[in-house]
Design goal:
globular; 136 residues
């Protein structure tokens, strides 16, 4: 399996507030670049936009401990989206046939592995960041 070695380190902190504050600062910086939906341009998808809003709604469905685990890799995930040219694991979404899921694997600066999942709509070609989670 190909891993993208991120130049960013994990967000430090043990409580949800500490980690959320730093992750929101990163998101706010990205959001300030556009008046519309925040996005990051992906190297793998030839500079196409990956929209970031769905991730936040997905994150708030999780328990607080799980949110912390996932948010710690937010900086690494944004770096992976922007810079990775490694091939993801791609498969059709079993819940909705008009969507394709791309799973990119990465390693933080500390060497911890994580996965970034991007959803692509087959008809519109819109790509959204769905989830970031550490590999156990």
């Amino acid at each position: 399996m190909n891993f993208y070695k991120s130049s960013k380190s994990k967000i430090h902190g043990s409580s949800y507030r500490e980690v959320l504050k730093e992750a929101e600062a990163i998101f706010k910086q990205i959001k300030s670049r556009t008046k519309r939906t925040p996005y990051a341009r992906s190297k793998y998808f030839r500079s196409e936009k990956i929209f970031l809003n769905i991730f936040w709604s997905h994150l708030h469905e999780k328990h607080e401990r799980e949110r912390v685990r996932r948010l710690k890799f937010y900086a690494c995930a944004i770096d992976l989206i922007k810079s990775s040219s490694c091939d993801p694991i791609t498969r059709e979404n079993f819940k909705q046939r008009d969507e394709v899921l791309h799973r990119f694997s990465g390693k933080s600066k500390e060497g911890e592995t994580f996965t970034v999942q991007i959803k692509e709509n087959k008809r519109t070609k819109r790509k959204d960041l769905i989830s970031i989670f550490p590999d156990n």
